[in-house]
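Let's practice the habit of predicting before peeking. Look at the sequence and jot down your guess about where helices and strands might fall. Then scroll down.
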Amino acid sequence: MRLDLERVSFSYAPAEPALQDVDISLRDGDSIALIGPNGSGKSTLLKLASGVLRPHAGTIHVDGRSLASLSPRQVARRLAMVAQERPMGFDFTVREVVAMGRIPHTGRFARESHRDRAAIAHAMDLADVQWLGDRSIRAISGGERQRVYLAMALAQEPEILLLDEPTTHLDLRHQVQFMSIVAEQVKGGTSAFVAIHDLTLAAQACNRIALLCEGRLVAVGAAGDVLTRAHIESVFGVRVVIDTHRDLDAPFVLPTLTLDTTSNG
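Done guessing? Here is the structure:
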């Protein structure tokens, strides 16, 4: 499956563009880390890609079909979104929340099939939330909830994962576990857009990096081509050390406690 954003622009208010002329494509088995300062347009791009928002200019296509022409159920069978926050209006159990990922395939009131139960159990096992199954979604920590929402997305069996800062509430172990799950899904043929602040983790987990600043795409490509001192210091306004560890096939980014006052960040 292929997701193409072509010259996409969007504004929340007149004269305040959130995204401007963004061209980016997600191919089969591709994973792109979206990086950039707060307010650079990462979350907006994901909302546009998921169909939650519609572009004011440009086009978005899924396998050559306009995203706007697809029904919500057709979109949900192809794409799954894990947002930063997902308020729950009712006191569902964790398993009930994960089971919601099957709705695009079964309908809202259908009985669970053997395949549904297997998909739910597998997703909960992958996200390490099976032991929380009978707990209330409101009674667990923010990090645990984020893993539950990942399990719900995996139960959906999407071809494309859209992840908006998914590791924000996670401890170090579960950050690594979360991104390892995403990387394994990509190896299996799923594609992923991941908005993330940890540049080193992004470089290890994703095939490509897309750097956004003030709604514009600054650079997109391999981690070594995008995660350069010039790019990072210019966009983020901090001085960094960038190197490649002998055990990692990706650059790591170490910020120093010095602001770059000449940057645009």
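How did you do? Residues 88-157 form one domain.
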